[in-house]
């Protein structure tokens, strides 16, 4: 009988290895037991959300948050989960003897210990209804039915890490952050491997190409060939619009990582891209100014309570307000108000006044002051500054929801406030606010109808279309 059981065990293990591969299934003898180890990849019918919640400190104690604040949590949709390991001890009487029950052990980084215990219990339940060769059924259950059995639609890494700490389980990444990154990186790697094996149609050139010659954006998964993506990114970067390097699909805001951009464009173009990102970041910092030294333009960190700034590159000491050589406590000579006053005196003054101004500032500098003053007056009358980076933007037509081409900030043309990236149009739909239902305040309907012919009243439905557009703002257009 023992020889018959041994032969049946060997046949089962060899069959299992033939189905799932030698690298997935292996076994060895430990005294009278046969120990089988199977690496199982759980299949997901739909993607699952993985969440990591930041922890706050209370005194010296780190407190686990039970309430999830959107600003304190990060989530990623994953298509693959890390492999789990099933280890089974097979006694000598298995599979012929009912009393010789196999003993399963399960290791899984993305399940808390209580759920692992529940799964092991279910595996033993399957055995009691079979009492024969069981390994294939167990592996098939873990591979195809596990997620549905546990009804998992969200993986909270904080809860998993806390549960493992309480039960002193030490497998896998220790911290919630490490576990979150591990699951996300595993899913990305597996998704890329499968993506590269298949053919994909580029949404721009409509050509079918091998996956390794294509790229996909996350989380939208829009797919394009590398050449079309490279051409699009390179054009934007060379034109100084690095912020426009995003998904090529219309109305999609999926942004690529710097690593993604580096993998697509040339080394020279990527260096330009990095420089632009750095400049945008520095321009948004109030205490960072660019050195006015000839040919320098290096970013300089200025003291917040002083007008003095000293360049570490060319060692120029300059005033951070007027960007001229540092003048101590003396007032700036060429601030905006002063330039406007000099221009007024020159344009309204007599010949004697003009001659005095030329002697005081020099003809070349005087012409520059007048030109800059006129430019500032035009900008003040015809444009508004971005609330983040300060670049002036002119609105020629379209709705009052603006997007800065330099830093990507969404903002309101009417009141100048920043808008939430997730729902920028919600600003115009909040009652009891100054901008309520003013998405198209001041917009010329005739100009807008050139872009939206359906708003024409000839068919009697235009007014209704206009009202829908004014409330939802989904079709709003703007120009910078």
Distance N to C terminus: 85 Å
What is the count of β-strands?
21
Structural class: alpha+beta
Strand content: 15-25%
Shape: elongated
Number of DSSP helical runs: 14
What's the story with the biggest beta sheet? 4 strands, antiparallel
The level of helicity is: 25-40%
Overall mean pLDDT: 82
Strand order of the largest sheet: 1-2-7-8
Low-confidence stretches: 57-70, 470-480
Gyration radius, in Å? 33 Å
Topology (SSEs and partners):
Layout: H1 2-20, E1 25-30, E2 33-40, E3 48-53, E4 56-58, E5 61-63, E6 73-78, E7 84-90, E8 103-107, H2 113-128, H3 135-144, H4 146-150, E9 154-156, H5 157-166, H6 176-197, E10 199-201, E11 208-210, E12 214-216, E13 223-225, H7 226-238, H8 258-264, H9 267-283, E14 288-290, E15 299-301, E16 308-310, E17 317-319, H10 336-348, H11 351-361, H12 363-382, E18 384-385, E19 392-393, E20 401-403, E21 410-412, H13 445-451, H14 462-472
Parallel strand pairs: 3-9
Antiparallel strand pairs: 1-2, 2-7, 3-6, 4-5, 7-8, 10-11, 12-13, 14-15, 16-17, 18-19, 20-21
Task: Write a structural description.
There is one protein chain. With 480 residues, the protein is an alpha+beta fold. The chain is built from 14 helices and 21 strands. The strands form nine sheets. The chain has a four-stranded antiparallel sheet with strand order 1-2-7-8. It is elongated, with a radius of gyration of 33 Å. The N and C termini lie far apart (85 Å). 20% of the residues are buried. The model is unreliable at 57-70 and 470-480 (pLDDT under 50).
Main traits of this protein?
480 residues; alpha+beta; disordered C terminus; 3-stranded mixed beta sheet
């Amino acid at each position: 009988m023992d020889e018959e059981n041994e032969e049946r065990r060997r046949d089962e293990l060899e069959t299992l290895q033939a189905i799932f591969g030698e690298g997935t299934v292996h076994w060895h003898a430990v005294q009278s037991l046969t120990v089988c180890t199977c690496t199982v990849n759980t299949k997901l019918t739909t993607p699952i959300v993985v969440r990591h919640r930041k922890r706050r400190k209370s005194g010296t104690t780190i407190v686990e948050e039970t309430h999830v604040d959107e600003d304190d949590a990060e989530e990623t949709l994953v298509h693959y989960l890390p492999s789990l390991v099933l280890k089974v001890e097979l006694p000598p009487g298995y599979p012929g003897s009912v009393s010789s029950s196999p003993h399963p052990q399960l290791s899984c980084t993305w399940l808390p210990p209580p759920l692992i215990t529940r799964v092991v219990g279910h595996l033993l339940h399957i055995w009691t209804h079979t009492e024969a060769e069981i390994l294939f059924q167990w592996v098939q259950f873990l591979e195809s039915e596990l997620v549905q059995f546990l009804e998992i639609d969200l993986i909270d890494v904080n809860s998993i890490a806390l549960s493992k700490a309480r039960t002193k389980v030490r497998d896998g990444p220790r911290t919630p952050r490490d576990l979150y990154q591990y699951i996300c990186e595993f899913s990305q790697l597996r998704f890329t491997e499968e993506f590269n094996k298949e053919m994909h149609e580029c949404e721009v050139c409509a050509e079918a190409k091998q996956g390794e010659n294509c790229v996909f954006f996350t989380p939208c998964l829009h797919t394009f060939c590398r050449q079309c993506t490279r051409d699009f990114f390179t054009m934007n970067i060379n034109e100084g619009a690095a912020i426009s390097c995003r998904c090529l699909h219309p109305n999609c805001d999926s942004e690529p990582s710097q690593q993604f951009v580096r993998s697509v464009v040339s080394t020279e173009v990527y260096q330009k891209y990095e420089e632009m990102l750095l400049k945008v970041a520095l321009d948004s910092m109030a205490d960072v100014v660019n050195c006015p030294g000839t040919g320098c333009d290096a970013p300089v960190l200025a003291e917040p309570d002083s007008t003095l700034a000293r360049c570490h590159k060319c060692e120029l000491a300059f005033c951070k307000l007027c960007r001229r050589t540092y003048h101590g406590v003396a007032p700036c000579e060429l601030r905006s108000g002063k330039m406007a006053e000099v221009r007024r005196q020159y344009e309204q003054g007599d010949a004697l006044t003009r001659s005095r101004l030329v002697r005081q500032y020099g003809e070349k500098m005087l012409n520059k002051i007048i030109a800059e003053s006129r430019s500032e007056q035009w900008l003040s009358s015809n444009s508004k500054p971005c609330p983040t980076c300060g670049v002036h933007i002119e609105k020629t037509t379209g709705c009052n929801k603006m997007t800065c081409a330099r830093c990507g900030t969404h903002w309101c043309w009417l009141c100048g406030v920043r808008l939430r990236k997730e729902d920028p149009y919600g600003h115009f739909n909040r009652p009891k606010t100054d901008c309520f239902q003013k998405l198209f305040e001041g917009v010329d309907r005739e100009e807008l109808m050139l872009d939206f012919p359906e708003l024409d009243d000839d068919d009697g439905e235009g007014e209704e279309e206009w009202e829908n557009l004014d409330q939802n703002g989904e079709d709003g257009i703007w120009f910078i």
